[in-house]
Amino acid sequence: MARVFVYGTLKKGQPNYKHMINTAKGLAKFQGRGRTVEKYPLVIAGKYNIPYMLNIPGTGHHVAGEIYSVDDQMLQFLDEFEGCPDMYQRTLMSIEVVEWEGKGSAGETRAAAEGIMECFVYSTATYPPEWVGLPYYDSYDSSGKHGLSYVLRESR
Length: 156
Known about the structure:
Layout: E1 2-6, H1 17-20, E2 28-36, E3 42-45, E4 50-53, E5 64-70, H2 72-81, E6 89-100, H3 106-114, E7 116-123
Parallel strand pairs: 1-7
Antiparallel strand pairs: 1-5, 2-5, 2-6, 3-4, 6-7
């Protein structure tokens, strides 16, 4: 199992969460909530209002999200879903555990108790330069006060 940190449309209550609970795509087990140890710019960009974490460490906010344990099948699905490696790149990042529900190995439980763990995150280093000038968010909600509702793939 791999650990993945999701900060956008794949979180609970967001438009693409249905993929995280679709066992035909693999297994994803919610472990807890966290936030990036380093600051990153989280922007909403493009004509479909997609959330992107720009891979510019030290700029922006500590981005909030959810930590999942996923099997190889789900990780492969997520790579395809996230357009990896062209649109997003899957990289390891340090995530501070804010709230932990996960039941796992002693090592995982200890890592959670210590407060920081390494998780795969889909961020991007391949973005138009003007995105750096967009507003930065610390947390994503498709129906947030930003007014930039995400456009589902089936509606594009």
